[in-house]
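Customer escalation, tier 2.

The customer says the design service returned an amino acid string that "doesn't look like it belongs to this structure." They asked us to rerun it and document both sides in this ticket. The original structure tokens are below, unchanged.
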């Protein structure tokens, strides 16, 4: 009994001290700032807060100027792309041909201008229409001539459509070695003032290919002379300063495309797009 009474008296003496400790702990916790339970926001990751319904903004990163991203200075060499180097070489080669042939008198200017006039559409269209009218009058006695001339006229129209479309798409300026407008070359319509591809080259190459088709791919004076004339016309366009060398090459490709369309891809006269039955022959 004596021990129990001693334990009870000890507990009664300790209880007020424990009560004061618990009260002090609750007071300290009440003074603590409550923890934020919000989710992580965009600005926590370096993004800017969106304002209203505007577009989503990218993180703001400080731009650092280095030697590679500084503005080029007048003395710097700016690297050129492959296409730019090709165009530069094309202009250089074309000017060299012009200087070697025309300025140094290797070929008379009148000869080059004669080739220019021979490849003009102002000659080929009226001449073909006149021949086609004569062939139409005698189509019963000579249907072959009317059939050939009809497809030849269709090829000339196709040539204008192909070349005009490509010129209007690229709109490349002609060489200007003389300081005159279009290098002194007189044009009829606006699209003809552009350089790529060469219309004279495409027309003369088409005429040569057409004669080869009609001749069955064989030789003969006519087709061989037409091929030589087409090559000379192509060279004269660069020598006169009317076109760049790449314009001439593109003109030959346009002629090949013309023949492919005219023969439905067969490159043979029996497959001309204007068949004899269609012409009533």
């Amino acid at each position: 009994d004596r021990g129990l009474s001693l334990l009870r008296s000890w507990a009664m003496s300790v209880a007020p001290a424990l009560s004061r400790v618990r009260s002090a702990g609750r007071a300290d916790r009440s003074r603590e700032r409550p923890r934020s339970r919000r989710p992580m926001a965009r600005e926590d990751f370096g993004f800017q807060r969106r304002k209203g319904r505007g577009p989503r903004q990218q993180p703001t990163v400080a731009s650092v100027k280095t030697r590679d991203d500084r503005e080029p200075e007048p003395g710097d060499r700016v690297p050129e792309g492959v296409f730019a180097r090709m165009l530069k070489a094309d202009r250089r080669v074309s000017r060299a041909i012009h200087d070697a042939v025309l300025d140094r008198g290797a070929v008379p200017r009148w000869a080059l201008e004669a080739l220019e006039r021979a490849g003009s559409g102002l000659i080929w269209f009226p001449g073909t229409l006149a021949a086609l009218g004569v062939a139409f009058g005698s189509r019963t006695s000579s249907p072959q001539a009317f059939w050939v001339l009809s497809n030849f006229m269709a090829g000339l129209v196709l040539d204008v459509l192909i070349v005009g479309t490509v010129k209007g798409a690229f709109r490349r300026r002609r060489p200007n070695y003389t300081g005159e407008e279009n290098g002194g070359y007189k044009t009829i319509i606006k699209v003809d003032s552009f350089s790529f591809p060469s219309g004279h080259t495409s027309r003369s190459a088409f005429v040569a290919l057409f004669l080869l088709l009609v001749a069955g791919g064989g030789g003969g004076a006519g087709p061989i002379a037409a091929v030589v004339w087409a090559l000379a016309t192509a060279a004269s366009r660069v020598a006169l300063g009317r076109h760049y060398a790449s314009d001439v090459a593109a003109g030959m490709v346009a002629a090949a495309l013309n023949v492919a369309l005219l023969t439905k891809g067969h490159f043979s006269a029996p497959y001309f797009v204007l068949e004899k039955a269609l012409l009533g022959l």
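Tier 2 assessment: The sequence is consistent with the input. Residues 2-31 form the longest helix (30 residues). The radius of gyration is 43 Å. Sent an explanation to the customer and offered a walkthrough call.
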